[in-house]
Amino acid sequence: MSKTTAFLSGCAASATAIIAISLLTGAKAPPTKFDEIDVGRINVREPDGTLRLVISNRSQFPGLPWKGSEQARPDRTAYAGMLFVNDEGTENGGLIQNGKIGADGKPNAGLSLTFDRFRQDQVIQLLHDEEGGRATSTLSINDEPDSTQQPDVLQRGERITEIRKLPPDERKAAMQQMRDQGLLATNRVRLGTTPGKASALTLSDAQGRPRLRLMVTPEGKPSIQMLDDKGQPARTIDLEAK
Questions:
Q1: Strand ranges (DSSP E) for the chain?
Q2: Domain count of the chain?
Q3: 51 and 21 share a domain?
Q4: Are residues 77 and 26 both part of a single domain?
Q5: Same domain, residue pair 128 and 227
Q6: Parent domain of 8
Q7: Where is the composition biased (Basic and acidic residues) (predicted)?
């Protein structure tokens, strides 16, 4: 055996011994460090294997993490980003984004950062959307039902799928019944820009009906609108009001 071969064999034996001692004593191996890494997807898991965070490209983006398993979400094939996953292995928010030039030659892009209620949909969303030459950016705060007392987001989705198969009149009545029972998400606060380039803050009641709107037009005209239960202005205060 040459001196070089003997030296390399000795290094390999030493490395094997260090790994074995670390495994037997429970000592942590030193973390691996990278200056740069190219990957398609990263799954962050707890020691017991529970998924807690996913960072992924578009082609490998996951479905819906749900109680330790994964539900199919074919509607997510257009996005890259990350998903947040809670202690039981259920999705509770995420950051998704895409962007390209559409067939009309204009940007078609979006970015959404959301935080979900437990086993429900988003209660906070930061959203930017561009399509057809229009762009809006909004912050939305929503009410979601308590999943320990009401159907969770999957059960609600199954019920809505059934309702959509009903005749139009029955469908409308069934959706209204769910809304009256507090089983649907309702927007309470929306702050952002509008397609008409105004800036607006809209406050809604527990049924999701807009009741107060503060707005500034692109030209700089401010106004306060108090809305009735149909969403129509009942009173408007602006600089021209006497």
A1: 41-45, 51-56, 64-66, 69-71, 80-85, 91-101, 107-116, 122-131, 134-143, 186-193, 199-204, 210-216, 222-227, 233-238
A2: 3
A3: no
A4: no
A5: no
A6: 1-33
A7: 227-242
**Which of 145, 140, 224, 234 lies closest to 188 in space, CA to CA?**
140
Q: Two tokens at 111?
A: 């970015």
pLDDT digits (tens, 9 = 90+) for 94-136: 999 999 998 899 999 999 999 999 999 999 999 999 998 899 9
69 and 25 share one domain:
no
If you ran DSSP here, which 8-state letter would residue 117 be given?
A: P
**Are 41 and 140 contained in the same domain?**
yes
177 in any annotated domain: no
The one-letter amino acid at 61: F
Q: Which pLDDT value is given to residue 7?
A: 46
Tokens of 176: 């209204």
The residues, any chain, with a CB within 8 Å of residue 53's CB and separated by 6 or more, are 42, 43, 44, 82, 83, 84, 85
Coil vs helix vs strand at 69: strand
Q: Please indicate, yes or no, whether residues 132 and 218 belong to a single structural domain of this protein.
A: no
- φ, ψ for residue 95, nearest 5 deg: -130, 120
Element holding 179 (H helix, E strand): helix 168-180
